[in-house]
Amino acid sequence: MDSGSVAWMLMASALVLFMTPGLAFLYGGLVRGKNVVSTVMYSFVSMGVVSVVWVLWGYSLAFGEGGSFIGNFDYLGFKGVSSTGTDIHGAGTPDMAVAIFQMMFAIITPALITGAIAERFKFTTYLVFLVAWVTFVYVPIAHWVWAGDGWLFELGALDFAGGTVVHINAGIAAVVAAWLVGKRRGVDRGVEPHNVPFVILGAGILWFGWFGFNAGSGLASDGLAISAFLVTNTAAAMALVVWIVLGHIHTGKMSGVGAATGAVAGLVAITPASGFVGPMGAIAIGFGAGVLTFYAVRIRHKIGFDDALEVMAVHGIGGIWGAIATGIFAVGGIGLVNGDAKVLGYNVVAVLATITYSFIVTFVILKILDVIPGLGLRATREAEDAGLDVSLHGERAYVGDGAD
């Protein structure tokens, strides 16, 4: 057991967990003042609910050797998951450390979805949705991509840190959720973010935590972690620059929200590629992420589809680009730029499979929840008008002028 790698994996796990409060600040700053507590709670409560699900059955179904599509129940309650041995993952890092690391990915993924349904989704229903979605959507796709007997893993698709499992998965689920819950009330002329410093702080915390997300995904403290760290920062930086430049071209302004959005888009896109590309590949991926997500946001506004906080544009489109770009820019003789198109083909299959499965199963889950007595997807008209903070949580983020 390499004590240095163990220390790094525990630190990387803490960094990834810290991303979820960062997401809470990012999303909380983007909504109206009367819905801040509700929006923050979507992310924060995932830290509780998903942690319990992961320990009880999520990890076992994701990484147990059950077959090509789902794991088994060998590790229920972390039974047999060693804090010193490496029988499950064989990564040179104890299985329990890897399981903890993977728990943090499972926590943040459904929280990403909530940006699409902010300001109108019932909180009690969301708690049930968390359990169902992690169990029936996140866990199977994680098994496909990262378990040794998963069908996409065996096919040869490459996803170093979660382009398909986390970002495309959440982006597609967000589209389904926003479609089924319907448009927010009173947003025909747009919603101005109530706290831009919160947005930038949240993006900064995400950027900081993403070094654990990507550099930790090699499961060791080694040269691969160093390379993943560098390309993660590089892609985020490039996408940020692209966003503010394009914003200036179109509006004459360089938006703080735009800078934050661009940085997150770059982080999303480099995630699947971070263990396979070099610095110049990261520049290209960051540039592509900046351009594609910037115009995806503008198109979404023109269409009028109320994905409230641009989850599909940033995570869905960014994740799709990142998965495809992995197959293009991967070094070591396996990328398209090196004359090998196989990984690109495998990753296109992974993208299509993730989109299809996430869309269908998320749709089914939400449709069922919508007809269960006492649940339903949408808060009442009165609750929305008053703000979800007061009506659903009995609290205000602010007292006075900031409450609206």
Care to count the β-strands? 0
* Through-space gap between termini: 54 Å
Write the CATH homologous superfamily: Ammonium transporter AmtB like domains
Chain-averaged pLDDT:
96
Biggest sheet architecture: none
Main CATH class: Mainly Alpha
CATH topology: Ammonium transporter fold
Instruction: Give the % helix.
Output: 55-70%
Low-confidence runs? none
Order of helices and strands: HHHHHHHHHHHHHH
* Tally of helical segments: 14
Strand content: under 5%
C-alpha-based Rg, rounded:
20 Å
Shape: globular
Protein described:
This protein has 14 helices and no strands. The mean pLDDT is 96. The relative contact order is 0.15. The protein has one domain (3-403): Ammonium transporter AmtB like domains (Ammonium transporter fold, Orthogonal Bundle). Helix content is 68%, strand content 0%. It has 404 residues and is an all-alpha fold. It starts with a helix and ends in an 11-residue tail after the last helix. α2 (36-63) crosses α3 (95-113) and α4 (123-146) runs antiparallel to α12 (342-371).
